[in-house]
Amino acid sequence: MRGAMLGLAEKGVDYELVEVPPPFKDPEHIARNPFGRVPAFEHEGFMFYETQAILRYVDQVFSGPILQPVDAHEIARMNQILGIIDCYLGRSWSSTIGLERLLATRFFGRQPDLDQIESAVPIARTCAEALEDLITGPYLTGETFSLADIRLMPHFDWFRLTPEGEEILTGKSKLALWFQHVSERASAKEILLPLN
């Protein structure tokens, strides 16, 4: 959800957050969002879900800074990094390690599942190493702040707060500089708030 919010903030789009408590029992909602995905986005009667789809739509429909590079190499790198985030990193960094370390006790009233965390560490490490190798400039794809940066920011923000993230990210100097750089953006200061 924070990825979509970052994109909207970068474009200067006003939006309203509407909480839909799971399970999604409303038949109309299920028909429009069968996986119960969060975030979902509605604009002018058009409703859809998946963060990457939301970000690409927002970039195409609303004015403001362009969030996708024009250089073919940077576009390919952006798409490659988005694939890494959607297929591997999100699940390991946020949905497993971040959830278990940062949310399990506070929001679910249980201890972190250490077996799940341990099973996620190898792919989490591979993701960090791959990203460290891929960074080519101040931003992930080079000189252009892009959807790849927006998608990684909230995952990195949570992951770095976990013991596993702290250990895995140690020595990843390009990732550290990248996060320091993007954290100065107005959108990051607005959206990447500490967990309460």
**CATH architectural designation of the largest domain:** Up-down Bundle
The helix content is: 55-70%
**Main beta sheet, described?**
2 strands, antiparallel
Name of the CATH first level of the largest domain: Mainly Alpha
Counting DSSP H or I runs of 4 or more residues, the number of helices is 9
- Structural class by SSE content: mainly alpha
Number of strands: 2
Strand order of the largest sheet: 1-2
Output the helix-strand order. HHEEHHHHHHH
- Span of the ends, CA to CA: 17 Å
Shape estimate? globular
Question: How many separate domains?
Answer: 2
In the predicted model, the low-confidence regions spanning at least 5 consecutive residues are none
Instruction: From the 3D structure, determine the CATH topology of the largest domain.
Output: Glutathione S-transferase Yfyf (Class Pi), Chain A, domain 2
Percent range for β-strand residues: under 5%
Report mean pLDDT, rounded to a whole number. Answer: 89
Return Rg in Å: 17 Å
